[in-house]
Specification:
It is built from eleven helices and 13 strands. With 392 residues, the protein is an alpha+beta fold.
Amino acid sequence: MINQEMKKAVLDSFKKVYGDNDEVKAYFAPGRVNLIGEHTDYNGGHVFPCALTIGTYGAAAKRDDRKLRFYSVNQDRLGVIESSLDDLNPSDKAGWTNYPKGVVWAFEKRGMKLDKGFDLVISGNIPNGSGLSSSASLEVLTGFILRDLYGFEVSNQDLALIGQYSENNFNGCNCGIMDQFAVAMGKDDNAIFLDTSDLSFEYAPIKLDGAKIIIANTNKKHKLTDSQYNARRSMCEKALAIFQNKLDIKGLGDLTIEEFEANKGLLTDPDMQKKAKHAVYENQRAIEAVKALKAGDIEHFGKLMRQSHESLRDDYDVTGVELDTLAEEAWKIPGVIGSRMTGGGFGGCTVSIVRDDAIENFKKTVGENYRKKIGYDATFYTVEIGGGPEVI
């Protein structure tokens, strides 16, 4: 469901910033929300995200030289940020353009070298710092544009892997594959049940008769690269190495709950044990949640969402007072099927499944109680599940 106003704005901005160009084309890549399976994607577990109808719009055209020019409608005060194919290095002064530059760099690492530069304008309607994957959306959008403009043979799944590689190695955030995969492989009205250990996946139809997905944004800014994200990942890697001395496993996602409980004594650091426990239990919750959904048991799906949040709060320690307030207030409202934090944590958003007749009360009551406790407003969005990247 393309937003025609956003498409028009990005094309108008391209003309205003770079002048008339008959070759310019418009593109879209979605944001994503993860319904359940959090902090499992770098532990070889299962995730269950879906693409959204909000995302990042781009207008782009090839140049005749090696210049790269970037302009963001959302950050117009920064003006045009210039770079070149001969300067594919991350830098503080490059700001947000480190993401598209990183993708160009990752393409070249795979032998897909650009002969000419490009002009790019982007505009997004994903709230910044919300944890709805504005960075993965921009990475996949860039990869999709490069494929289209330069004729590279690369699948959408590869676009996801290239985006993750660039974020890990160019931007320095050790994210798993989920965000880029959900953005690149999105399908209308379906979530993606993805096994991150081998990238096998299936689409699962989301039928929410009489209910909607509501995103609540804490409006607390978070920056994953600077956060505790990499520290959590590192601790899980250490736990895995300890387990591997005794068990034949490739990732924490390979462990059943019974196997974890039988062997958790190997982890003598109580904090490490809690982090590993979350990775194992959350993976099993994701598997169970998809079964519940297929059986039409949305109530059980909702219970698992709550258990997921409690584990992220108590064991993985990535929620914080803002996310906890939104989730815990949501649980009190009749008609809320389930609610949990989504994304990396430390700020960002909760995702809730709310019955249609409870939505207004949910927004009003949770919003008021959040303001009382936190001192500023949360923002609520009713979202729809959308498809992957496209030329528009």
